[in-house]
Amino acid sequence: SAVLKRWGYRKFLLVFAAVIIQSITQFCAVVAISPLMDVIFKGDGYSENKIVSYLSGLFAGTLSVQQVLALVFIAQLFALGSNLITEYIKYKTYDSFMFLLRSSLVRSLSSRPYFFFLKENPAALQKELTGDANLFCNTIFWTFLDTCSKLVVAISLMVACFSLSPQIAVVFVFIGAGFY
């Protein structure tokens, strides 16, 4: 708890904000697939799609097939970019927490008297500094961080799929949920 107080809760808030942004862009990417499916399966009937008609109203005119495909491609790029940025933020958070944990252990060991180091096995001290910190960060901290972020993204994608169509949601549960 003292380590977390020194480290600061703002890094957790940064990770949480990045995950929220990632889930929003994933939502937009899933929603963008709907016009793409209409272009593929309906041909010229894609303009009847709710999303395409909404975007046509924003751009003050009808959208061509190329413009719809470009918008879908841009939405997918934003989703991939947000995934990349979120993973980078998670890894930086993980690294900074591991560094703080190790430096905290070094600080606590350096406050011990000299005779402690004469009696203690150097291999045990090194294991305490490197092995235990790595074990904690890899098994508890990273697992918690990764699970929470994937859970938020999966829930937002399920909401997106149910908002589009229940059939897409069922397909997502059986196919897409394995990735999250």
Q: How would you describe this structure to a colleague?
A:
With 180 residues, the protein is an all-alpha fold. Helix content is 84%, strand content 0%. It contains seven helices and no strands. It has helices at residues 2-7, 10-42, 50-58, 65-110, 114-119, 122-164, 166-174. The two termini are 30 Å apart. The mean pLDDT is 75.
Which features does this protein show?
180 residues; mainly alpha; 84% helix; elongated
In short, what is this structure?
The chain has 180 residues and is mainly α. It has helices spanning 2-7, 10-42, 50-58, 65-110, 114-119, 122-164, 166-174.
Shape: elongated
Measured as a percent range, the helix fraction is over 70%
Count of helical stretches: 7
Largest sheet: none
User: What structural category arises from helix and sheet content?
Assistant: mainly alpha
Whole-number mean pLDDT: 75
Q: Please provide the count of β strands.
A: 0
User: End-to-end span in angstroms?
Assistant: 30 Å
Q: Order of helices and strands, N to C?
A: HHHHHHH
| Strand proportion | under 5%
Gyration radius, to the nearest Å? Answer: 24 Å
Low-confidence stretches: none
